[in-house]
Write a structure and sequence with these properties.
The chain has about 250 residues and is α/β, with parallel strands linked by helices. It has 6 helices and 11 strands. It folds into 2 domains: about 70 residues, Hypothetical PUA domain-like, domain 1 (Ribosomal Protein L25, Chain P), CATH 2.40.240; about 160 residues, SPOUT methyltransferase, trefoil knot domain (Alpha/beta knot), CATH 3.40.1280. It starts with a strand and ends in a 5-residue tail after the last helix.
């Protein structure tokens, strides 16, 4: 079993090198000591979630919420190419968090929540901020669980106009759509570098007006297969397909 991953503050691993003793405290230290019950000599990984990882062993356990990590190696992961962003329309209930969790575990690079016209769920005011916070917390926890060093950022809620701008700047832009004329994503010509942006619509589908706006931005409709997936699982399946086809899983 690979070593557990714990998230530290941004830039806190700057200047850390083999031989450094790094203190892990606060909520992550408490989780390591009181929940995971790590003991001296056990392997552990620290990451800033932005691609840097410090690998080491537990050197000391102090109380219920702190341990010291003896760093043995430090690794910085380059930005993955091509970069995969999934624009996820807001699903009903907690299915949004499920989508974020499984896409993160699969390997998506960025997630952008989208307020599509046919979304039953709408993020407004404090409720919207709370929901966005849940998505971001889910991405962090899933990033740790899947032993990632680079966690996918979850952007602020996007409008259709903002999604169109994102698609216009992409090296490959696609909208998952079940209409008969959609080409299979499995046969699309994909770039080896740049940004791939994939739009996943809501339960009611992408509206004709949204499809037209996205087509004007350069996005074409694609389908995954003969069956129709839920909005909360389509992004995960598409991410896996893209990671395999671009060689990132090779």
């Amino acid at each position: 079993m690979t070593a557990p991953v714990f998230l530290v503050e941004e830039d806190s691993l700057t200047g850390v090198f083999p031989g450094t003793v790094f203190p892990l405290d606060g909520p992550e230290g408490r989780h390591a000591v009181s929940v995971r019950r790590l003991r001296v000599g056990e392997d552990i990984v620290l990451t800033d979630g932005a691609g840097t990882g410090a690998f080491g062993t537990v050197a000391a356990v102090e109380g219920k919420d702190r341990l010291d990590v003896a760093v043995t190696s430090v690794r910085a992961e380059p930005l993955p190419q091509p970069h995969i962003t999934v624009v996820q329309a807001l699903p009903k209930g907690d299915r949004g968090e499920l989508a974020v969790e499984t896409m993160t575990e699969t390997g998506v690079d960025a997630i952008a929540p989208w307020s599509a016209s046919r979304c039953v769920t709408q993020w407004k005011g404090e409720r919207g901020l709370k929901a966005l916070g849940k998505w971001r917390a889910t991405a962090r926890e899933a990033g740790k669980q899947s032993r990632r060093l680079r966690f996918p950022p979850v952007s602020d809620l996007l409008t259709t106009k903002q999604v169109s701008a994102l698609l216009a700047d992409a090296a490959f832009a696609a909208v998952l759509h079940e209409e008969g004329s959609s080409a299979p994503l499995a046969t699309a010509s994909l770039p080896q570098t740049g940004n791939i942006v994939l739009v996943v619509g809501p339960e009611g589908g992408v509206s004709p007006e949204e499809l037209a706006a996205f087509a004007e931005a350069g996005a074409k409709p694609y389908r995954l297969g003969p069956s129709v997936l839920r909005t909360s699982t389509a992004g995960t399946a598409a991410t896996a397909l893209l990671l395999g086809r671009t060689g990132r899983w090779s």
